[in-house]
Design a protein that fits this description.
The protein is of the alpha+beta class and 133 residues long. It has three helices and six strands; from the N terminus they run βββαβααββ. It has one domain: RutC-like (60s Ribosomal Protein L30, Chain: A).
Length: 133
Amino acid sequence: MRVIQPAAWAPAKGYANGVLCVGGRTLYVAGQVGWDAQQQPGPDDFVAQFDAALGNVLAVVEAAGGRPENVVKMTVYVTDVAAYRASTRAIGASWRARLGRHFPAMALVGVTELVEPWAKVEIEAVAHWEEGD
């Protein structure tokens, strides 16, 4: 896995512009919301839902034999972009606690609603690792 950064571009902040994967194993993680292992709704708080959804993504990655740093692409869907912007510091703390300074290719998408009516955040991801990694 190699981060791709066009030479003439300013460095991306908090994400990678591209990630190149060759060989190995690739895992596609379905959208995860902030519920617990029994699919019971989590807290109503935006940041807590982000943290739980991120934890759920990483639980799937780890169940497949990967590690957090194997996540190469992530799409975050939020029902309130303003709440996301207002929470970036707390979201950053959650991110660092779970992924450190690892930043995959990412997109943030504002949506009207998610399938789970109480959910404010849903995260889907792609992870990749080399055989024997």
